[in-house]
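3.2 Worked example (two chains)
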Amino acid sequence: MKEEFLGIWADVLTLEQARDRVRAMLGEGRPHFVASVNPEICLAAGRNRELRQALQQADLGIPDGIGIVLASRLRGGALRRRVTGIDLLQALAEMAASEGKSVYLFGAAAGVAAAAAANLTARFPGLKVAGTHHGYLPPEKEGEVAAIIAQSGADLVFVGLGSPRQELFVVRHGAATGARVLMVVGGAFDVLSGRLRRAPLLFQKLGLEWLFRLWQQPRRLLRCLALPRFLPLVLLARKK
């Protein structure tokens, strides 16, 4: 089941169901795109045609944002919980470790993806990290990174370049990586590396991770204003 938010689709599912969907994708002979759907992304897609078209090609759209869940509830939808990108990333790393799949981390500043990979391997013994690469490079060099990933033989690629760059990378270069699943993860590497702290569990349960993140990164204030703009647009769109 899926729900539509301003033209962008999010899947109605749990973390475990999302993990199992990706497991099935890894067994298929083509690349798959796992997108993250939140209010900011939906609003940005309304302004950016390339981003909108990229998101519409996603094989799975996880409801990563309390605003998505709230909008669904207010209009009588079926979504009742978030599936955050960082939680799914960790669930997939655990699955990869137990099933012999390899992962590649692409994005963030120099050294951050490598540190995140080291922490993941410490947490999930047996995890095969095919490689890491920072995201501080011009777009015209992204094809070269795709070739490096292909040479690594990675099954699953986590792409943390920020939106819309990460979504466009998957659409433009996903097939060239040779991976079966490419998942966009935003700033997850910063948290997994220890560079940023994740919100305490209480904040996570209350859907207030954004507030904790804002405390750590005040420059995100404008991004946090997406929710007040998003909810009225979604509710009005449903009434038309």
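3.2.1 Second chain
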Amino acid sequence: MTIQEAINARHSVRAYTMQVIEDEKREKLSEAVEEINKESGLNITIHYDDPRGFESRLAHYGKFQNVDNFIVLKGPDSDSFEEDCGYYGEKLVLIAQMLGLNTCWTALTFNKRAVKRIVPEGEKLCMVIALGYGQTQGVPRKSKSLEDIVATKGTMPDWFKAGAEAALLAPTAMNQQKFKIGMIDGEPAIKIDGKGFYTRVDLGIVKYHFEAASGHKVK
């Protein structure tokens, strides 16, 4: 599966089977986490065979089932912390998708007490991502159109259009899609458009989708 195929295929999944994630896939994910942490300065960790992360009333309310594996997005606080967590967290999500696994981003509906014990002193917790084999592959959600999110007028280059279409497939908090994509001095730029929950995390997720699909870095 290519990165573009993963972007197209990936949907949020909250209900999982009891199938154990194989050692080979764990090794590939561990290698990805090590590389990401080195590049980003974050301290992302993956926790396997541990249901405590989603044993809570909030998780039940969020309709999570059989979540025995999860990714914790954490690290030293910085001005770019939330955006970095979104960018690199989504990179991991798509790697997981390419390995045949399913995921779901969550900011609230997990066991905060259990997860916060994982966060070292001096570090900050951003979000948690459920991980495993889904009971289904999830379903597509409603999306804005290109015209809604592209600020640049005129004909779009093919690479820009591909990036913008991938950005529309990015998961955002409550499906807000509060972002605009344009060009500044011939380079693509993405900014938050309006107020909303976790927009800085969403910005990082959207940027990763755009860059992965277009092959162009975003300002």
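3.3 Remarks
The mean pLDDT is 95.
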